[in-house]
Design a protein that fits this description.
Layout: E1 9-16, H1 25-40, E2 46-54, E3 59-66, H2 69-78, E4 85-89
Antiparallel strand pairs: 1-3, 1-4, 2-3
Length: 98
C-alpha cells in the first residue's frame, strides 16, 4: 500500500446485468482508473485497486481506496458505469504468501 492510500477507506463496488459484461471490463477499468486519477489531481484521494468480472453471472466488482463512498460514486458516474451498490469494506494488510 502506498503512503497516499494510508488512512483511506476501502469500498466494494458492484455492477450487475448486461452492462457488467466481462468483454468490456478492460475498457471499463481504464475509464474508472482515468477518472480516479483525474479526481485525485485536484485534491480528492481515490484509487482503483482492482476490478474482477464474473462473466457467467454478469457481475463485475471493483475495489477502491477512497476518502468516501460519494467520491467513488462520482468516479463511477463520470466513467458512465453508475454503481448498483457501494459498500464500505475492510482492507487487507498486504499480500499473502500462498
Amino acid at each position: 500500500m502506498s503512503s497516499t492510500e494510508t488512512g483511506l477507506g476501502r469500498f466494494l463496488v458492484e455492477w450487475y446485468g448486461p452492462s457488467a459484461s466481462a468483454a468490456s471490463v478492460d475498457e471499463t477499468a481504464g475509464r474508472l482508473n482515468d477518472g480516479a486519477a483525474a479526481i485525485s489531481a485536484p485534491g480528492s484521494q481515490i484509487r482503483l485497486l482492482m476490478v474482477l468480472a464474473v462473466p457467467e453471472e454478469d457481475y463485475v466488482f471493483g475495489v477502491f481506496a477512497a476518502e468516501s463512498a460519494e467520491t467513488v460514486a462520482r468516479v463511477c458516474v463520470d466513467a458512465d458505469v453508475p454503481a448498483a451498490r457501494i459498500s464500505a469494506a475492510v482492507g487487507w494488510p498486504g499480500a499473502f504468501d500462498c
